[in-house]
Amino acid sequence: MWGHDDLARITPDHVADWVDGLAADKRADKTIRDVYLASAKALFGWLQGKRPVAANPCAGIRVKVVEEVVLRDRDFTEAEASTILAAALASQGGRLSPEHAAARRWVPWLCAYSGARVGENTQLRRKDVRHEGGIPVFRITPEAGTVKTKRFRDVQIHPHLVEMGFLDYVGARTGPLFYDPTRGRGGSSANPLSKKVGKRLAAWVRKLGIVDFGVDPNHGWRHSFKTRGRRGGMRDSILDAIQGHAPQTEGRKYGGFKVDVMAQEMELFPRYAIPLAASDALAA
């Protein structure tokens, strides 16, 4: 880019040109500031103590971020949630593979009752589901794929999912729950098959009529889980633990919540009641 690879020769002008180039490539201002520039600033800060770098060339660079206008909450409305969950209950016939049909059937409900990221659900494997002290749980783990926190966590499987037959489906699988590694052209570390499943689910949700771009078709469940859990009286500390959010204080980073404690709290989470007529209509 600059005709050399000597980091000690990088100047603030070089960094400013790089930032301008990122903006020209349509990178979001917030992404430039919080990802690209922040990473470069941290790197040069480290080099000042380890290598002959006299100053941090990123120190004086600023990226102005204009906050987006917010016209709605980021969680689903009751009507939107009902539309998605009813469609998930409907027949998933057509030319879908069995795994993709199962993803439509179960992943929205898993997201609704766990607040987990869609990718954390689509990468689940048979061996990630087990019982602990008689409580059914699934383990979100970096071993299965991407986990933002790079740390495993166990999430109770909501009783409603058990009643609907989720564990029966799991019992019929031997590997990944929602994709077949032998099908298609495979994936890569940057774009694994589980991620492709999530993208297809997002496109499907948009086709259901959830077209307001103020709510993400997959990530909206993360916000909805918090809102609904609070409505039922769940503690924020438990909600954070279930969703893998960082504790709010240093003291709360010590210890944790065992599955039995989370299970007791999950009983407070209001169930989704989807009229059978709604799913029947979508199946017709």
What is the domain total for the residues?
Answer: 2
Low-confidence stretches: none
Strand order of the largest sheet: 1-2-3
- Determine the mean pLDDT: 90
How many strand segments?
3
State the CATH class of the largest domain.
Answer: Mainly Alpha
Overall structural class, as computed from helix and strand content, comes to: mainly alpha
Strand and helix order: HHHHHEEEHHHHHHH
Radius of gyration (CA) equals 22 Å
Strand content: under 5%
Q: Percent range for helical residues?
A: 40-55%
Number of helices: 12
What's the story with the biggest beta sheet?
3 strands, antiparallel
CATH topology-level name of the largest domain: hpI Integrase, Chain A
Features:
284 residues; mainly alpha; hpI Integrase, Chain A; three-stranded antiparallel sheet; 12 helices; 3 strands; 47% helix; 5% strand; globular
In a few lines, what is going on in this structure?
47% of the residues lie in helices and 5% in strands.
3D architecture notes:
The protein has 284 residues and is mainly alpha-helical. The protein has 2 domains: 1-67; 78-283, hpI Integrase, Chain A (Orthogonal Bundle), CATH 1.10.443. The chain is built from 12 helices and 3 strands. The protein has helices spanning 12-24, 29-50, 78-89, 98-114, 118-122, 159-164, 166-171, 193-207, 220-232, 236-243, 259-266, 276-283; strands at 129-132, 135-140, 153-156. A 3-stranded antiparallel β-sheet has the order 1-2-3. Strand 1 and strand 2 form a beta hairpin. Helix 3 packs across helix 12 (276-283) and helix 4 (98-114) crosses helix 9. It is globular, with a radius of gyration of 22 Å. The mean pLDDT is 90.
